[in-house]
Amino acid sequence: MRFILPMLAIAASLASPAAAQLTAPEQAIVETVESGFESDVALLEEITLINSGTHNHAGVKAVADVLVPEFEALGFAVEWIDQSAAGRAGHLFARHEGAPGTTKMLLIGHLDTVFEPESPFTGFLCEGDRAVGPGVVDDKGGIVVILSALRAMKAAGTLDGANIVVALTGDEEDAGEPLEAARRDLVEAGEWADVALGFEGLSVLDGKDAGVIARRSSGSWTLTTNAKSGHSSGIFSEHAGYGAIYEMARILDTFRRELPEENLTYNVGLVAGGTPAELGEDGLSATTSGKTNIIPSSAVARGDLRALTQEQNERTAETMRAIVADHLPGTEAEITIEFRYPPMAPTDGNRALLDKLNVINADLGREPMAPYPPSRRGAADISFVAPYTHGLAGMGPAGSGSHAEGEAIDLRSIVRQAQRTAILMSRLAKEASDK
């Protein structure tokens, strides 16, 4: 047996020659992440048990307070950026100064979740390599991946030369107002950075890890129609017109027929019509009344708009406005369109980053990550910096059920994502900055 065991070890090493491409520091990264797995899960449990719904400002700040010493222990200068003027708690930024002239890296995650204090979904339940809890994937697991990767870089000696800003926003799930103020610090970090990595959940395509080089925008629109009211017996006549609801139906059905194109969606989430119909102050409700023998005087609808590029956003908006302007007789209509989260378009720079990550996958003996279809991903904070820097999203852990009771994480995915991230950042830190 003393002879057989070494031979088995040699055979195993020959069976995965790709792993031999790792440098000694990179091999140390792999081992450090693996050895820190239980500590990472413990940290995940600690911050998951703190409710940090976006509007629970004290909870968001409490999560930040747990993380501050974690970053300071790695040599980061930590800053809490108060956002009370925008109606939100604030953002946690951590900065590490490395070698001058080398790649500047921005890591993006968020402290808040969709689960407010009144949510019945609480706790942290670990079942083998799976854990369930509010925000456990989105995005507390992503924060743990960031810290696990940075600790491994520190242990391997590759963190010292790295220029890094970690931006953990406190309102990703419901951004503060005005949006320009709520995202000012993130945008400034994006203008500084050569590369941005977003640590929301890992995408899986046909059972395999995938890379996210693009995410669609998230905007909204509000449509109102108005018409002369009167006795229903006059509907469609020259003197009475078509009424507000038929005008609304015309517009929405024309959207359905004329707008479709790849990577574009435009959901209708709310419709109300009658005499009168009024949108609630929250924009999420409406009140109306009416009779079958009265031509309705008003109607209102709200929906969203998601596109892959800003050009697609603007072109679609112009088409929508033209459709709205083509009124039925006796009616009027108006649409307002708000672009909030911009798109993260699939650029050559983003593709090049995924190529570099796939070299690492090969060196680790793992399968390559195909680009994930952008139509399957929602908007995220990384989109705000997409115009200024190359980016990869989906660098957080794998899981299921985000934004719903029963949200779960694949705990072992923390390991492979942290290993990929730390090696990618270590290699990028040796390259020259473009800025």
UniProtKB/TrEMBL annotation:
- Provide the alphabetized UniProt keywords: Hydrolase, Metal-binding, Signal
* Keyword Transit peptide attributed: no
Keyword hit for Metal-binding? yes
- Per its record, what are the GO molecular function terms? hydrolase activity; metal ion binding
* Signal peptide stretch: 1-20
User: Can you give the residue ranges of the Peptidase M20 dimerisation domain?
Assistant: 213-331
Tell me the SUPFAM superfamilies matching this sequence: Bacterial exopeptidase dimerisation domain, Zn-dependent exopeptidases
Mind telling me which InterPro entries this protein's record contains?
Answer: Bact_exopeptidase_dim_dom, Peptidase_M20, Peptidase_M20_dimer, Peptidase_M20A
Descriptive protein name: M20 family peptidase
Native organism: Erythrobacter aureus
* Organism lineage: Bacteria, Pseudomonadati, Pseudomonadota, Alphaproteobacteria, Sphingomonadales
